[in-house]
Amino acid sequence: MCPRYIWSCPNPRALTASLPGPLATMSFIHVEKNSDFPIQNLPYGVFSTQDEPRHRIGVAIGDQILDLSVIRHLFTGPFMSGNQDVFNAPTLNSFMALGHNAWTEVRHFLQKLLAASEPLLRDNKELRDRAFVPQSKASLHLPANIGDYTDFYSSRDHATNVGIMFRGKENALMPNWLHLPVGYHGRASSVVVSGTPIRRPKGQVRPNDDKPPVFEASKLLDIELEMAFFVGPGNSLGNPIPIEKAHEHIFGMVLMNDWSARDIQKWEYVPLGPFLSKNFGTTISPWVVPMEALMPFVLPNPVQDPVPLPYLRDESNYAFDIKLFVSIQGEGMKDPVTICRSNYKYMYWTMKQQLAHHTVTGCNVRPGDLLASGTISGPDQGSFGSMLELSWRGSKPIDVGNGQTRTFLKDGDTVLITGYCQGEGYRVGFGQCSGTVLPAQ
Question: What are the backbone angles phi and psi of residue 144, rounded to the nearest 5°?
């Protein structure tokens, strides 16, 4: 039964029934020219306000948040009818679990609802006043309950750079790297939302190869420019997700900084890979950009040689032109200084290949699981996605202005990652992924 305040509005079922596809390009909500959040984007997030501390699901449009819990009754399409309460949940997990047909229906409905020509919400002041919250008055939270987190190592330029540093040019890539998406299981409990401070970790390090290890605060704290995607519907144990269907399980993308303690990592990573050097903090942006918003920016997949095994072969394009930037603002610095300009298109292994590989053993993934790209580096030094590469293992200080340099992060440094796809007259952005380094305890 519709709430009483709907009586003066057009029938939401009629609006839903008229949805052939996303047609709107202008919203009745004002959107600045270079905003990350035009009507072509509509990313999902979880927010609260001082007046209403309950965590709830919203969509970013301009400098506003549309509270989906307030308008959940309007979703009456075939895939959302009876499922409106997913927008009354404190996380996106239940909505992620509904699948790509429901995601598409919701997105198309929201684009129609927010269109400048649509009166349903535009002309209902009482509903509009309750449904919109200024982003400036909201606190943003982790968008999902992350059950499991996996980090891949899928940038060929990054893997080559690190290999050259530690093994030389002749052995830069390990023998398996061109045959499968290398990855490891990370720690989901320490994935935090943008703005959360990161404390410098302590651990075992071995500064001198001819002396025993010591326990101390990491001196080589680094960034890792990454992106990650959230899993939608999962798979049952023992049943892999075929690559032809992998896109149906990918909900959307976020920015990521997978902080790394290089000195701890160097001592611990043989033979099983990163452990304490990565488990102290991973930062993600709060807004999840749906894959449909990114499809206008899809690119041909990279040429892979040798040709992957059949379960990894993908005939559909699933690389994306996403411009990425990393900036640092240290204590006493007036403005952030950009130290990296990269692009997600440099990835060698695609998200579909990562998901198909992850589940080919029958491993079951679940709604809200997070799968990360690994450090994203491009072919030139300005596009390297870690300070390890930018400073070439500390041998080339990075200029951050006013006579200051960095090889690795100092206490008090704030790292800011941003990214967007540039359309004709609009951009589809991700907001901010930021964190400030606190001193070790």
Answer: -145, 160
